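ERR on first pass: missing label on line 2. Operator R.T. fixed the label and resubmitted. Corrected input:
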Amino acid sequence: MAKRIFSITKYRFVAVGISILLLVAGIVAYVVFDGFNLGIDFQSGYSQRVQIAPSAISLSYEGSDTVTLNVTGGNVTLVKRDASGPTYYEFRSDDYPTVGNLADAINDRISDVNALAVDGNLATSDLITGFGLPATLSEVPYVLKSANSVTATFVTIEEMRNVFGDGAQVQIVGEPYRQTFQLRLANDDNLSEEQMSQYVESSLAAKFGKDSLVVLQSDFVGPKYSSSLVSNSILIVVVAIALILLYIWFRFKLAYALASIITLVHDTFILIGFIVIFQLEVSTTTIAAILTIIGYSLNNVIVIFDRVRENQPLLKNERMMSLIDISVSQSLTRTLYSSLTTVLAILPLTLLASGTIQLFAIKMVFGIAVGAYSCNFLAPALLLWITKGKNDVKERKVETVEVKEESEIKEESEKEVVADIPIPTLERKLKGKRQQKK
Amino acid sequence: MKKRGRLFIVLLVVVMCGFFLYPTIKWYTFVPQETKDLATGSKVQIREYALGQATRDLRSLKELIKNDPNTTLPKEYKTLIPIAKENYKAMKMAKVRTWSVEALFRGFRSEQDLFDALERGYRVKLIDLKTLSGKVLQLGLDLRGGMSILLEADVDSYEEKHAKRLTSSQITALINEDIEILNERIDQFGVTEPDIRLQGSSQILIEIPGAADPERVNSFLRGKGSLTFQMVDQELTTQLNSYFNQNPTEAFTDAGQIRQPDFLPAGKIATAHYINDDYGLDELSSFVVLSEEVGLDGIHIANAVTGTNPITGQPTVNFELDASGGELFYKLTSTNTGELMAVVQDGKVKAMATITEPIRNNVQITGFGLDEARDLSIVLKTAALPIELIVVSQQAVGASLGEDSVKAGLVAIIVGLVLVFAFMIIIYKGSGIFADIALIFNLVILLSVLSAFNLTLTLTSIAGLVLTVGMAVDANVIILERIKEELAVGKSAAASVKAGFEKAFWTIMDANITTIIAALVLSQLGSGSIKGFANTLAVGIISSMFNALFVVKLMYDASISGKNPRLSVSWRRK
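pass 2 clean. output:
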């Protein structure tokens, strides 16, 4: 079965047009939105993920031994260390579905621990843990919180925004009923980590009460760190591109290297444009996404260029244009399948993950799509122009008929769908560096 | 390469994977949760546990011998027999055939010896497990909950305070002292043991597993209240030591704490003098009775250095106190001249010295070896860090969020894997199954390399893992498309496979090396979380290339050699 040959190069002007359009859209968005939506990695500040969660059960212990409390996967474990060594008490949420059951069971089994259900109807499996676990119990009750299930007391994003005014960005994480908010405060006054976390904590406690909040995550980035990160990120991207360019130059001709580097820069900028247009947060993982896309889109381009190079001695009579068309068409299935498997693998992450990893996955999916487009349309066009420019210069010196001949062939090859061209059947000639002793 | 050579390499890789994954599999499947908790706990906890268990065992052994000296030794004490045998030999006593409890007791010179043997048994077992846990593929702090803090030396304020410029090597030296001091304070953490290490030349990275509380971390960094000076009651100390030596079972509670005997009056507490042993653990050297009242808090120590006495040449520890500390210390030393004073860290006596005269600011302690002097000066410095630290960045993740991330990550990997599996089989039929087997093998190699290099599995490395699943089949796709082309021009199955692999080889190399370059640059120059991603990606790509070119090739060789060669590359073609 001979593969159908698509005259990809015919669309080269359309491709360049689309690319320019996308790039311009990115620049416009950059101006309109006044730059990137920088994460705290790049912009010193404090970020916290909090969940509004009412008190569920309080535990206290007044004896002279040590009792530690831990919660994993909705199951509560208490460890008592006394004169007879450590004793483990596990309370599974399956056995004690409500917090009321749990409190009774704890009071029953460990005589000197005092458990008090604040709201006995809450589900044990909904217990949420933040910082501070495993905790050592004392006379001061330790309060475990549970996911909020009373719709009437739901905190809206506006209420949360009002707590900090314009000083903070607030986002809802996940479904609104989860009552989880991501707060981000810029550190304009050069505060220390301690000062910022205390400010956030006291502001939230004043509004919602200390016992109805769980801090799930907190991040602080000082000004020194973020400024070093920017220079470090630029260094990473430049070093990576330089090394890759060197490798392709070494393995292919310079024309191929140039075409692939322009494609790579194009992909990077379109991806950055996408990030700006949708105002996705820029964090360190964004750098990882960009570099992965650089590697990935090059991977595609190289597979195609490799085919072009391989076909060159076999199809001596073909013009560069149809040579490229044939090579792109031969690699098309592979390009599509590989992009598809990668997207298939990442897709669940874009739906299931949250936070930076979800953003990473979204950026990757978009980057792969851009890569699939540019390796099939843009890179071949660039290769054509660069090699044609070179050949023109060379051949014009010998003959001047060249120009006419070229236009004829152009017409010929730009017929709707090009006829089946048989795949070269010669065994590949191994030459030069690729000579392998098998 | 010959088939046999290729098979050998693949088998070698399988064996290596097994070797590196063994600790991880053992840890996660065969070690009970309670033991895991103990082994990952701090060394102090391990010691407490070992002391407690040994006390309990010794008590039950004594009960057994009281009831019937000829009872055969219960199974759980079998580990003591080899030690007793050695002792029999050393004491030139007749060999024993059946081990009764009495025979065991005769194998030890004293109850204390037996107690030590029991204690060592428990300790060695847990320390070994602790070592094992270091070789296991661990979840990162963002997945199991925890906190990481990046601290940097506050050079500006140091230079201002001391009115001198610091060179970068001086900063590194000061930072290393800080690290030593923070390591001394680790005990304060009790349940979880933080990992403290130098990063770059002027930064410290502290990682605390478990959902650590930022507040507790701040007090840890300040180091308040961990060091005190207290007076020793020499009379009661002598009494306590002789009492505990006669009754070793009375010395510790089963939780491993020192028992407070009844004869101690109020205001006096029993504690012990510890010196560092081979494990880097504090080892008890003698019991001490202290006044509960704190003579001086270590927070008043301004500086501490080791030196030598110019006349005697003995090592000394010299420390300076601040103004208010000097007043307090003068009062303490003038009322207690001639008495013994103890330096107490976290309730443990680290050093004792006799007060020869009232002292105000500059204190000199003598009477121990060079190492001890050095240790003590570190202990004294614990109260104040030589160079202050600023928090550069801090990340804390609660345990719930970590659990959710692990769950989401696992589901994402499994769903992605299933989708890719299905896709490959739908497109390539039998060859798709080969690619899928290679994909699974790929994940196994990836995990074993990660555990071999002691890398932790973080949220970003899960992203790398997911990405690898998608990209790993790429090499297979390139090869299969080539094979299809060869079949299309009418070649035999065997010839198509051979040509397909040969032609795809350099394409795969060139295409993947660019991605590896990007991943390596990221892993070398990127920051913490990015490193995890880049490492996973780099290892994943390399192992996917290995799988496509070696493992899958072997599968083809097996399926097309023989009498009935079968090659299935698509549903359309037979």
